[in-house]
Amino acid sequence: MSEAIRGNASGDVMVEKNRRPTIVRTIADLRARVARWRSAGETVAMVPTMGALHDGHLSLVEEGFRRADHVVVSIFVNPTQFAPHEDFQTYPRTEASDVDKLAALGTDVVFAPNALEMYPLGNATRIELGGPATGLESDFRPHFFGGVATIVAKLIIACGPDFAIFGEKDYQQLAVVRRMVGDLTLPVTIVGGETVREADGLAMSSRNAYLSPEERATAPRLAEEMRRVAEVARRRGDVAAACEAAGRALIEAGFRQIDYVAVRNAATLAAPSGEAGEPLRVLMAAWLGRTRLIDNCAV
Length: 299
Fold this sequence. Notes:
By secondary structure, the protein is of the alpha/beta class. Helix content is 36%, strand content 21%. It has two domains: 3-193, HUPs (Rossmann fold, 3-Layer(aba) Sandwich), CATH 3.40.50.620; 206-298, Pantoate-beta-alanine ligase, C-terminal domain (Pantoate--beta-alanine Ligase, Chain: A,domain 2). The chain is built from ten helices and eleven strands. The model has no long low-confidence stretch (mean pLDDT 94).
């Protein structure tokens, strides 16, 4: 049997033997389980995912157990964040193996609803966004953050967790969720988990499975160019020239299209003000074959 790291609200870390999570399909059942934990004075963390879990996701579950008594992982491929030409139908769906991985961590509940449960017939409400949702991803996927914000709000309202854990790999998404939760005064603490990388530096992503062997060998160049841009920004050098050079280098390496290479204020994702000590972030998105890769890092 595997052993799983579990924590509690005091921050203590304990080890618990492997056990299968309960799979819950409805919001009513999820709320009933969380209510029982609440009645015992216990805390809850939620990790929203679309499944096809890798070590990056699992690190977020471990972070959840460091902060709370119980962890709920949602697995839901959210249709409202996909455009008609995107990969909603082919997005990897691997619930059985996902549950096996979560069992090894002692995950309490897997919330795996269908689309009708999350979007009842006649549903007509979406969240409108600004601030950190403006630009970058929105320039290329204008539908995306509205769908993300709507489903994240619905999941938080359905579960009522103390903490919701998101990966920094999707940094703009994390910033959008933080802004939304603050603006709507949702009673949850948003936690960002560090990006988990392969040994060669490629950020882990479910979509990495789309890469051919040749593309997989090229993919780490994205992180390499990102680090070069970050070093220029750290020295307060010519950031615009560094971003342009990174884009050219990626095309020469075999990437077919660069969506953006940018340096932004780490908190707001606005253009840098140039003030001394301003926290900065490098963000990148590029196509390698049919796979769109994104990455980011702190300056």
